[in-house]
Design brief:
The protein has about 180 residues and is α/β, with parallel strands linked by helices. It contains seven helices and six strands, in the order E-E-H-H-H-H-E-H-E-E-H-E-H. It has a six-stranded mixed β-sheet. The protein is globular and about 50 Å long.
């Protein structure tokens, strides 16, 4: 996996039995890193287990170093465009899926809670916004379903997300759980 693909914010929409592209944008992040900021000792504060440290690859470290971009003006602009697209939908019930950084688009829907109150939005995702989404709180029109599948970037690092306050906001899709 190319680490920058995490910042390709792709959302698919379920229509019938198919999933079709619904929204796509790229959160631009700096591609350059110093060797010292990617050194494994710089991640010791994460308290990863010994096993997790062994598999915390350069790709994971680069993604982790750029997660702060999900608090930028650019993500707010992108999320506003995403929310506008949802608000323009005639359908009331919308089912989406996303992986990677796409989940962060849904964390910004709180800003549109009142306008979205007539919609019922479901987001199926393999990622949990465990870092940089502390202010995320649920809205009644949004249901998040966690799909424990192999597309998750950080699924092999339970230390990062198992104590996340965001985890309680998610329902586990039992069908996915049985097939994973």
């Amino acid at each position: 996996m190319n680490w920058q693909s995490f910042f390709q914010l792709k959302v698919m929409q379920k229509r019938g039995n198919d999933e079709i592209p619904y929204f796509c944008d790229e959160l631009k992040v700096g591609p350059d890193f110093s060797l010292s900021e990617l050194h494994l000792r710089e991640f010791m504060d994460l308290r990863l287990s010994e096993r997790e440290l062994k598999i915390f690859s350069l790709t994971h470290r680069k993604i982790f170093r750029r997660l702060g971009a999900f608090h930028s003006r650019e993500i707010k602009r992108i999320a506003d465009n995403f929310a506008s697209r949802i608000l323009s939908e005639r359908k009331r019930d919308l089912i989406f899926s996303t992986s990677g950084g796409g989940i962060y688009l849904f964390t910004y829907l709180k800003r549109f809670e009142e306008e979205l109150s007539l919609k019922q939005i479901t987001c199926r995702t393999s990622e949990i916004p465990f870092y940089g989404a502390k202010e995320f709180s649920p809205i009644t029109s949004l249901k998040l379903e966690y799909r424990p599948d192999s597309r998750s970037v950080f699924d092999l690092f339970p230390t990062l997300w198992e104590n996340s306050p965001q985890l309680i906001l998610f329902e586990v899709d039992e069908n996915e759980k049985e097939t994973a």
